[in-house]
From TrEMBL:
GO terms for cellular component: extracellular region. Residues 40-133 form the LCCL domain. The keyword Disulfide bond applies. Keywords: Disulfide bond, Repeat, Secreted, Signal. The lineage of its organism: Eukaryota, Metazoa, Chordata, Craniata, Vertebrata. It holds the Pfam family LCCL. Residues 1-26 form the signal peptide. It comes from Cebus imitator. The keyword Repeat applies. The gene is VIT. This is Vitrin.
């Protein structure tokens, strides 16, 4: 009788192990069949400013050639959102001039931004700005879903004129004082000459 009981127990344990192994194998096969949607990294041009993108955190792909000085960058490490996203990425050292993927995170505006020369890009100083951003390597956080398509500001009022200079108000051999209208209708004076570019914003 005892032998029969032991045999039955062995059979039950054996059956349990078979079911367990079968279940694990089945789960693996199911996991293989379920394909996770592939994340598509949106591409932007060198002239896209962070302030035009509404998303608070995103991954983008920059093209080559964003080291060009025509793509203005304001600040060092923490950049004003009026800066070229990809230009700031090159300045920060996260990218080189050949382009690539970056992670951009919006942060609070700063009371001042200090310009510097780094990685072939001369960033500019700015007294203050309403919004900032930092550039990181494109390593997604666990559990964070990044947008495959960016949301852009659709404003076409005064903000659409951002960066367009209204007129040259003063010109001398040693410098040119240019008045520009920014997206929030504030004026910015740009003094250019032999000295580094200086900016003054008037509310």
């Amino acid at each position: 009788m005892r032998t029969v009981v032991l045999t039955m127990k062995a059979s039950v344990i054996e059956m349990f192990l078979v079911l367990l192994v079968t279940g694990v194998h089945s789960n693996k096969e199911t996991a293989k069949k379920i394909k996770r949607p592939k994340f598509t990294v949106p591409q932007i041009n060198c002239d896209v400013k962070a302030g035009k993108i509404i998303n608070p955190e995103f991954i983008v792909k920059c093209p080559a050639g964003c080291q060009d000085p025509k793509y203005h960058v304001y600040g060092t490490d923490v950049y004003a959102s009026y800066s070229s996203v990809c230009g700031a990425a090159v300045h920060s050292g996260v990218l080189d001039n050949s382009g690539g993927k970056i992670l951009v995170r919006k942060v609070a505006g700063q009371s001042g931004y200090k310009g510097s020369y780094s990685n072939g890009v001369q960033s500019l100083s700015l007294p203050r700005w309403r919004e900032s951003f930092i550039v990181l390597e494109s390593k997604p956080k666990k559990g964070v879903t990044y947008p495959s398509a960016l949301t852009y500001s659709s404003s076409k009022s005064p903000a659409a004129q951002a960066g367009k200079c209204s007129r040259v108000i003063e010109s001398k051999p040693e410098f040119i004082n240019t008045r520009c209208v920014l997206g929030d209708s504030r004026e910015i004076n740009i003094l250019t000459g032999q000295a580094p570019l200086a900016l003054a914003i008037f509310s």
